[in-house]
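As a representative case, we now present a protein record of this kind.
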Amino acid sequence: SLESYRDLVSKFKSLIDAGTLRVKVVDGLMIVELATDILFAPGKDSLSKEGRTAIKEVGLVLQGVEGRPVQVAGHTDNVPIKNARFPSNWHLGAGRAIAVTRVLVASGLDPERVSASSYADTRPTDTNRTKEGRARNRRIEIVLVPDLSLLPGFSELNDLAGSP
């Protein structure tokens, strides 16, 4: 709802003002987006000290968002990576998402509410033809998964799916 979006934005105000993150709505999903250049060194999945601090702050806010599952998604630019640790951008995105997930859980977020995923370079938000565009494509998105039980017609959907 608009009220929960405003509430989330106000709770993240200091991090938004610092340029650390932004809150957006895409395809009906509320997303907290952090640029990975703030969180990680190039080609790495260990969080910087500043990155750990920012993710801990995000975790504290998300603890107050009751009952909403959270998915942490790693996104990369389209510059190929291939080394022993990361044979592809899929692996790098996943490693970064897992690193963020671990800090969220360590900061008190219920591990049953959190999952990690990687989209690699398949969902760019900008062009990969410029340095600035690639930088915007390298990001972590923390998605607040909607509660389908609040949708109109949920009970019919449940019946169709054969759910108990």
